[in-house]
Write a structure and sequence with these properties.
Blueprint lengths: L1 H23 L3 H13 L11 H17 L4 H6 L1 H26 L5 H11 L4 H11 L3 H31 L6 H30 L3 H21 L4 H14 L6 H37 L7 H21 L1 H8 L5 H9 L5 H8 L11 H29 L7 H27 L6 H13 L23 H40 L6 H16 L10
């Protein structure tokens, strides 16, 4: 019961931090980190113990899956050089230089353990970046680059971490075989992702219950991660590919399931992040209590590692400019490079890997050093940078006023309207099912995508005291008129459904096109889904 109470307490603190973050316009991960550290220092607070081997499988799959669903294959295809340079090159170089720095400053530390520390602090976190981007009004083009980088650099970091841990336990050395293992594991992981993505799409067509479809989306990321790890492949890559595949062939008619999944994953993202930061705060408390004043001996080492991480990223962001220009035509200015350097925030991967360090004889007394240094990097790259990204963007005059995003949404909306009108013309224009006036009203409704149709007509028929109509002929005429009006309303709703189906299909197609912002497409699609759900249930899909 104690463990359950601590978990529920962390979830409650997360909700409070999210609410305060919205009110104060601050990133909630920063508040959660500070709150969990403060709570963990309360005397007598029980220790929350989770098996180190379960940390990565429990925390990474849901957050990676939720983040990956906000992008699309087209983004990766158009920016593959930038992705390769940032996710693989910069992550590996950062890990190597941190490992070299620690080996020089800490006599007697095993090289694999130094590499493990380098792998922990190397990858920036897409979840942390996304949390600070909204309040800071970061331009979408920069946020998209950070999100793309953040999805795959975790894979490189975890491969380095697990290889170094295996070498530490077995006494073997790290060599060229590590690169081969990574490439083979990546290929296997991609295959698993495609297979599970196909299986998910097939199963979602067989299952009609929205709750069951949402439950499937919960199971899939964990299945992908576990299957890949069991085959000694990259669980991170498997989860990301699975998420991209589940989005790639989404169907227009799955409105209710789409909204249900999106809502669930928003909640899961918040709660899992809160638990991760809470666990880190508690572990840091244990380390500080064990080391006492000796913690201050680690400060120079932590400062040196923080400096290496920041300097290497700054150099990398400058060197990446010609690669980014060649990929997507993005002409990154020096201001963009400053923002990309500033937003190299460490987050969940650093937390999870630090929590996953086993207390073994091979790790020895250096475990506390590794945890403290990783925590220091997390604090330095997350707290001051997260609080300062807004003023930085304002000083550099890079804050997004929403013009670009609204322009993309407007363009997608026009495409959706055009597809809706064309579908309605093909289905109803040359038929006698709907009158010309009704057809004109439907077209006008889609031209605004917001006006509600009003075809209701009221009529009063005089009745005798016994309930019979005074004029039976007039009564029959009114019944026929009402039936005709009811049939007209049904046809108009059916026509609107045809139009909404076409509009959603157009947006889904646009989402996978190069140069289209997936999140802008998701915004338009969500509004169309909500309009679809507003239609009478008996008419949805019956047209």
């Amino acid at each position: 019961m104690t463990t359950l109470a601590l978990v529920v307490g962390l979830l409650a603190v997360t909700v409070v931090c999210v609410a305060l973050g919205e009110r104060w316009r601050l990133p909630y991960p920063i508040l959660m980190l500070l709150a969990s550290s403060a709570i963990a220092s309360i005397p007598g607070l029980p220790h929350l113990q989770i098996d180190a081997h379960l940390i990565l499988p429990l925390l990474l799959p849901p957050l990676l899956f939720a983040t990956a669903q906000k992008t699309d294959w087209s983004v990766f295809i158009s920016r593959w050089r930038t992705l390769l340079a940032l996710a693989v090159g910069l992550t590996a170089v950062t890990a190597a230089l941190v490992a070299g720095t620690v080996s020089l400053l800490v006599p007697g530390i095993a090289l694999p353990l130094a590499v493990m520390l380098g792998a922990m602090v190397a990858p920036p976190d897409p979840v942390a970046v996304e949390a600070v981007a909204g309040p800071a009004k970061m331009p979408r083009r920069l946020l998209s680059m950070l999100q793309t980088e953040g999805l795959f650099n975790d894979a490189v970091a975890i491969v380095l971490f697990t290889a170094a841990l295996s070498a530490l336990d077995s006494g073997a050395s790290l060599g060229v075989g590590l690169v081969v293992d990574f490439l083979v594991g990546a290929v296997i992981a991609v295959g698993i992702g495609f297979a599970l993505g196909f299986g998910y799409r097939f199963a979602s067509r067989m299952v009609t219950t929205t709750a069951a479809r949402t439950a499937m989306s919960v199971v899939v990321p964990f299945a992908a991660y576990i299957a890949a790890e069991e085959l000694h492949a990259s669980g991170v890559i498997a989860v990301v590919v699975t998420a991209l595949e589940t989005k790639r062939r989404a169907r227009a008619e799955d409105s209710e399931a789409r909204i249900s999944r999106a809502t669930f994953w928003d909640v899961a993202n918040l709660l899992v992040t809160g638990i991760a930061f809470g666990l880190m705060g508690m572990q840091l408390r244990d380390v500080v209590a064990e080391e006492g004043m000796g913690v201050f001996d680690y400060v120079p080492i932590a400062a040196a590692v923080c400096a290496v991480v920041i300097v290497v990223r700054a150099i990398g962001m400058l060197l990446i400019r010609p690669v980014a220009r060649k990929d997507g035509g993005d002409d990154l200015s020096w201001k963009d490079s400053v923002v990309l350097t500033w937003c190299g925030m460490r987050g969940l991967a650093t937390l999870a890997l630090a929590l996953a360090i086993p207390s073994t004889e091979a790790v020895g007394d250096h475990r506390n050093l590794v945890v403290i240094v990783a925590s220091a990097v997390l604090l330095v790259t997350l707290v001051p940078t997260g609080l300062g990204v807004g003023p930085l963007l304002k000083a550099l005059k890079l804050q997004d006023d929403g013009t670009v995003t609204m322009g993309e949404i407007r363009e997608l909306t026009m495409r959706a309207q055009g597809a809706a009108l064309e579908a309605i013309r093909e289905r109803f224009e040359n038929t006698e099912e709907i009158t010309p006036d009704q057809l004109a009203a439907i077209k006008q409704r889609f031209q605004g995508l917001r006006k509600e149709l009003d075809t209701s007509t009221q009529a009063v028929v005089a009745m005798n005291p016994d309930g019979t109509p005074v004029d039976p002929e007039l009564h029959q005429q009114m019944i026929a008129k009402r039936k005709k009006l009811r049939r007209g309303r049904e046809l108009m709703v059916a026509a609107q459904t045809v139009g909404l189906d076409a509009a959603r299909a157009e947006v889904l197609q646009a989402r996978s096109e190069p140069g289209v912002d997936p999140e802008a497409a998701d915004t338009v699609l969500r509004q169309l889904d909500l309009q679809m759900l507003a239609a009478p249930p008996q008419l949805r899909g019956k047209h």
